[in-house]
Amino acid sequence: MSTEKNRLNHIAIIMDGNGRWAKRRGLPRSAGHKKGAETVKDIAKAVNERGIRFLTLYAFSTENWQRPAEEVKTLMDLLRQYLKYDLEEMRKNNIRIRFIGERDMLDQDIAESMAQLESKTAGNLGMTLVLAISYGARQEIVAAAKKIAALVKKGDMSESDIDLKLFSDMLYTRDIPDPDILIRTSGEQRISNYLLWQAAYAEMFFTETLWPDFSAEELDKVIEKFYSRERRYGKI
Ligand code: FPP
Fold first, then answer.
1. Which of 93, 152, 167, 206 makes a 20 to 30 Å CA pair with 18?
2. Which residues are within 8 A (CB) of 133 and not within 5 positions of it... i.e. 6 or more apart?
3. Is the minimum distance from the CB of 98 to ligand 1 under 6 angstroms?
């Protein structure tokens, strides 16, 4: 048994189940996403209050672009609203905001608001909230490989410079520690192209709770379980 308490710097979440939450109530899927956005606020606040340094949320995957146009619009409109009002609130609470994902897929006004928020909050010393938007982990890894290939081709780097640290630094998440906890809500037990590199040693937690119903109390239960787990990182 490990006697040292596990260190918790970073929680990553796959927010799943908005659609089912709405369906169970006879509401349109958009109502589930709206309620899910409220939960984002509550959980970000809770994580910040608990002194955890990083929270990464899967808000929109590269695969989500294939959803019906109407649903993509709902999600993008929610994001627009979020960028304007709620994230501004977080900025005031000293939260630093970062985005990971393929920005060139996004509407220009959204991409611009994202860049602005990142620079406005860069000096904030509270928690870093990382929103994965238009994000896919395989795409991220391929982009990193391309960056390295270009540097080697230019002669700025040689093949022998490529190691785990260098590869990590080429990902969107450079400077962000790997997640210690990965939570997926709604009963699904898949990683769905999320943080494939970074979650190599994350402790996984799956809950039946649908994202709009996920609460700070349930988060605390996950954190408690995390501290009771033994992390060996492949050693004995
Ligand atoms: C999964 O539910 C959730 C998403 C695809 C998007 C997550 C988005 C939010 C929580 C709201 C917007 C967030 C921000 C930051 C503005 P699902 O639609 O796959 O649910 P289902 O599996 O029950 O259909």
1. 93
2. 59, 60, 79, 99, 100, 101, 106, 114
3. no
pTM of the model: 0.95
Q: Which of 6, 18, 64, 169 is catalytic?
A: 64
Interhelix angle 29-49/216-228, rounded to 10 degrees, is 50
Measured from the Cα of 81, ligand 1's closest atom is 16
Q: Would you state the structure tokens that stand for residue 196, as one six-digit string?
A: 């494939």
Q: Is 213 a catalytic residue?
A: no
How does the average pLDDT of the chain come out, rounded? 94
C-alpha 207/C-alpha 39 separation (Å) is 15
What pLDDT does residue 3 have? Answer: 45
The model's confidence at residue 4, banded by pLDDT at 50, 70 and 90, is: low
Q: Are 10 and 206 in contact (CB under 8 A)?
A: no
